[in-house]
C-alpha cells in the first residue's frame, strides 16, 4: 500500500523516449533492473570508497556502499509506505558516475576540466544513465523514468540545471525532489558514516579509544561493553554500529512522521513544494554532523589516506594529459566523435575502475605509483 505522498509508477512523468509498459514489472522496478544490468554498475565493485581496491578485500567499495544504501532505504521506505523499488533504483544508481580513487579522482578530473565545464560525479551519474550506457538499439543511456533520474541528481549548479530540462528544474525554482529521493540522500549519509567507522578501525587508522570523541558512537560502544564485558573488540564495534544504524533508522522514521503530520502532503507534487520532510530529529542531526567532522579530521585527512589519494590524483591528471595529447590512446569509440572534445576524455576516465586506471597510467607513462 502506497501513501498518497509516495511516487506511483502508474502516474510517472515518463521516460525521455516513450516505451510500452513492461507486462510484469512496474516502471521503477524496470529502472532498477536496467541499472543492475548496466556496465557502470558492475564497475562499482572495483571503485574506491575510502580505501583503494587493492588495499584489502574487506573494505567497502562503491558497489557494497550502494547496496547498503539500498538496504537502509528500503527498510525506511517500507515503514513510511514509500515506493521501495524507486528507492532501490535511486540508491543503486547514485554513484554510477564516480571516478576511480573516490573524491580525489573527482577533484583531479574537475581541475582538468575547469575550462570545459568542470566535472561533478553526481551530474556524471545522470550522464551515465541518460547518455553513456550503450545497450539498447533505440536510444542512448538506460532511458529511466523521470522519478529515478530526479533522485540520482542530488546536486546541480544553476548553469547545468538550465540545460537539463525538467529534471534540473528544482535547482532553479527551489523546490524539493520526491520523498523517495530525499530518503536515498539521507540513507547515503547514514551508510557511509557507519561503514567508514568500521573500515577505519579495521585498517588501523582509527583506534577504539578515539571513538569516545564521538557521542553517537561512544554511547553504543559503552553500552555493549557493559552488557558483554568479555566480547572481543571487533564484535563490540560490530554490535555498536548495528545499534547505531538501528537507532538512526528509527529516528528518521519518527522525525519524518512528525514532519508529514505537520504538513499533510496529499500528493507527491505537494511534497516537492514543501521544505524537506525526510529528516533526522534535531538531536540526531547534530550527532551525525559531529561524526562526519570526526571522520573528516581523523580518517579522510589521515596522512596515509592523503598519501594514497594524492597518488590517485596524479594518475588521473597524467591520464588526462596523455589522452589530451593523443586521443587515439583511448578506444576508438571515445575519440571518433569530435563533438565531445575533452568531455570524451572525462567520460572515459570517470568510467575506469581503480585497477584499470593504475594499469593504464603505467602503460602510458611507464611509472608505477602504487
Automatic annotation (TrEMBL):
It comes from Caldimonas caldifontis. This is Deoxyguanosinetriphosphate triphosphohydrolase-like protein. Keywords: Hydrolase. The keyword Hydrolase applies. Residues 17-29 have a biased composition (Basic and acidic residues). Residues 1-29 are annotated as: Disordered. It comes from the Bacteria. Gene3D superfamilies: Hypothetical protein af1432 (1.10.3210.10). GO terms for biological process: dGTP catabolic process. PROSITE patterns: HD (PS51831).
